[in-house]
Amino acid sequence: MCGIVGFDGFFNGNDFISILKDLKHRGPDSTGIYLENNEKIFKTDINLDTIALDENYSFALGHNLLSIYNSKKKDGFQPISHKNLILVFNGEIYNIKDINSFLKLKNNSSDSYVLINLIYFFYKENNDLLYAVKKSFQLIDGDFTFAVFDGENLAISRDIIGVKPLFYHTSSKINIFSSERSSIKKLKIKDIKSLKPGNILYNWEEIKFKEDIGNYVIDIDSNYLKNLEMLLKESIYKRIKNLDRIGLIFSGGVDSGIIAYILKEISKERDLEVILYAVGDENSKDILYARKIAEFLGLKLNIQNITEEIVKENLEEVVKFIGENNLMKIGVGMTIFLAAKMIHKDNIKVALSGQGADELFAGYNRYLNTYIKGFKFLDDELRYDINNMYNVNLERDDTASMKNSVELRLPYLDKKFIEYSLNIPIKYKIESSDDKIRKLVLRDLAYKLGMNKEFAYRPKKAAQYGSGIDKILRKNVLKQVNIESYL
Q1: Structural domain of residue 259, as residue ranges?
Q2: Is residue 460 part of a domain?
């Protein structure tokens, strides 16, 4: 994963560079820029500490690279150009082999190189950039944001789930997009929007292109448990392909527990180092079960013990990237942030997380209130939550991990897995109106994979409570610190 930036209008080059510097944690391996004024400037692998652009420009694209596989591979440097197209890309394309075959390209080509060639393949039909992006979007399986410029038109897009973030500001003077909201805020800009998943921002007008993923309806047969297992394994396989080390943000619950079980199976088949990372009070049930499952699987477990000092030490940074004083968001954000800190320290660049399972399988306690109203009401709520989790959970978790230069990949939010899971009948997700554990079908899958009943069917608190961060904030830290001062 990387950081991408774009300016369109009238601006000073140093403002553009300041945002790239602010996003350097998203891509510490290389920086590239493209600018226009009276001339066109195209540079890759520049030094942000020494470059100065104290002139006015009319257009710019910038990219910070987090190289997952090989930071010396120059075809991964961006912005990238092909014919009259210039592109910046953030994310992963999982079906790159299929697209390579379609375009007759070499299989070792980078994601950005394949994508710009795919867009140009359709663009050359009629020189219509919007048409080319729409056609390309239909073929891509991945988590991504990208911007492509043909010299006149600019098209910006985001994956259909919204795993990768993209924020933008439009005005009569300047239009800006960036991978992080906070970087635009640093220019004293307040009116900032989040590009909706599956939409295309074309010449700064947002176009709804794809149907919301939660609206898909498919038939489910009696083999739903077997199919669910197959789809989840497929999702995990493609998210760790070509990696020899992977981190897993691990709470000892069923969501991350299932991922750990599957990763253990994969590690038996090929050379893959799997390390689990847990955050919590050393006496909490989450840490107790994290240790038990890690020992059962024979996987290494690293733990960040939560204390008042740890919470106070990291609070300001977390509050700033969360951007508000919501204690739930701060508690979850700090859990991800501290886990990613450990992962970065171990020099691992990619981590998996169980995000999305609660929305797919009715894991939150609040779903019981809707369950009482009827299955149709709960089904609608789950679909709504999946369609809208991008602007709270996904953007928060992405920022929390990328502050430590760690790319977060989310197996439960694979397009095929989402479509299938949402159509599993509610009766297989919640057993009754007093169901204390919920996510029944997911727990059945965990048991089928080999988890014992103690692990698969145990009740579990949300991350901010299970880690103990929320309790420390409310009982101690908030009496000593004014969170508003950090904002």
Answers
A1: 215-481
A2: yes
pLDDT tens across 342-368, in order?
999 999 999 999 999 999 999 999 999
Are residue 260 and residue 123 in the same domain, yes or no?
no
What residues contact residue 315 under an 8 Å CB cut-off, 6+ apart?
Answer: 330, 334, 473, 477, 481, 483, 486
The Cα 220–Cα 419 span in angstroms is 11
Q: Note if the pTM is more than 0.85.
A: yes
Residues 113, 93 share a domain: yes
Q: Across the strands, what pairs with 276?
A: 248, 301
How many distinct structural domains can be found in the chain? 2
Q: Are residues 113 and 7 in the same domain?
A: yes
Q: How far apart are CA 407 and CA 373, in angstroms?
A: 39
Q: Which residues are catalytic?
A: 2
Q: What is the pLDDT of residue 70?
A: 57
Whether residue 373 is contained in a domain is answered as yes
| CA dihedral sign, ordered 442, 447, 453, 456 | negative
The pLDDT, as a whole number, for residue 73 is 52
The answer on 236 and 154 residing in a single domain is no
Convert the pLDDT of each residue in 275-332 to its tens digit: 999 999 888 889 999 999 999 999 999 999 999 999 999 999 999 888 888 888 999 9
Return the closest-CA partner of residue 406 out of 324, 344, 487, 322.
344
Q: For residues 309 and 476, what is the distance between their CA atoms, to the nearest angstrom?
A: 10
